[in-house]
Specification:
The protein has 10 helices and 9 strands. With 280 residues, the chain is α/β, with parallel strands linked by helices. The chain has 2 domains: 6-129, 3-Layer(aba) Sandwich (Oxidized Rhodanese, domain 1), CATH 3.40.250; 158-270, Oxidized Rhodanese, domain 1. The chain has a 5-stranded parallel beta sheet with strand order 1-5-4-2-3. The protein has a 4-stranded parallel beta sheet with strand order 7-6-8-9, with helices on one face. Helix 2 links the parallel strand 2 (21-25) and strand 3 (49-50). The radius of gyration is 18 Å and the shape is globular. The termini are far apart.
């Protein structure tokens, strides 16, 4: 049975030597972009390959397409193939703990049509806490073809979001911290505030005190209350740059609320055009 949302440390440990599985380390620090790679070279899950948020999981910046635009799908698929992530592989993704970077890879793979991908619940922090194996050795890749092709049904662009402002049939969900959502502070982007009509679901509210995702029924109840009768198919997720929005999308999938979309450019793209409205 493929894993399509979360995978436990226990389950991943059982498959470390399974050639039909591949593991990716997605650790990243927004304030220190080189920290994730250094951490990986020092210690990682045996057999894991490293993917960098800026270099692998994002595309080139133009100044108008957000801080983490989508990667070119052909180039990204080629990169995955270089590392051995063939179309039949079960992918496990992890980061330092909260799952925000791993969820970005999870969503990108689904965007390319690869459903057999799961985020390690609790991340590397839980893995180490449980005393599971680690290494500094970089594995040798076995290149293959990754046959991914981007799906358009799970993505909303800025024009789509703009057309549906004020339309109750589309529910925008912002994953940023409440202070940033309200426009009380802004640490990363030049404009504070949010897209008019959006509601706030801080991505960290998806986690328990141990840094693992909360139970599916808890997530389901909370998202249903937040959406106030709207269906999951009406939801468009966004955040600062299209990273933590993936965390909320994953949480909804865990909760059995499938079919929501993502606005990849998110607030960093939206606020780059002064003609677009801002709410505070």
């Amino acid at each position: 049975m493929p894993f399509t949302t979360l995978i436990s440390t226990q389950e991943l440990a059982r498959h470390l030597d399974d050639p039909s599985w591949i593991v990716f380390d997605c650790r990243h620090d927004l304030a220190n972009p080189g920290a994730g790679r250094r951490a990986y070279l020092g210690s990682h899950i045996p057999g894991a390959f490293f993917l960098h948020l800026d270099e692998d999981l994002s595309g080139p910046l133009t100044g108008r397409n957000g801080r983490h635009p989508l990667p070119d799908p052909r180039r990204f698929a080629a990169r995955l193939g270089e590392l051995g992530a063939g179309g039949a592989k079960q992918v496990a993704a992890y980061d330092a703990g909260a799952g925000m970077m791993a969820a970005r890879l999870w969503w990108l793979l689904r965007w390319l049509g690869h459903e057999q991908v799961a985020v390690l619940d609790g991340g590397y922090a839980r893995w180490l806490k449980e005393g599971r194996p680690e290494t500094g050795a970089v594995p040798e890749a076995r290149p293959c073809r990754f046959p991914g092709f981007p799906r358009s049904d799970g993505v909303a662009d800025a024009a789509t979001v703009a057309r549906h402002l004020g339309n109750p049939a589309v529910r925008l969900v912002d994953a940023r911290a409440p202070e940033r959502f309200k426009g009380l502070e802004e640490t990363l982007d030049p404009v504070a505030g949010h897209i008019p009509g959006a509601i706030n679901r801080f991505f960290k509210d998806n986690l328990d005190a141990e840094g693992c995702f909360r139970a599916a029924d808890v997530l389901r109840n909370e998202f249903q209350e937040l959406l106030a009768g709207a269906s999951s198919g009406q939801v468009v997720h966004y955040c600062g740059s299209g990273v933590t929005a993936c965390h909320n999308l994953l949480a909804m999938e865990i909760a059995g609320l499938s079919g929501s979309r993502m606005y990849p450019g998110s607030w960093s793209e939206w606020c780059s055009d002064p003609s677009r409205p801002v709410a505070r």
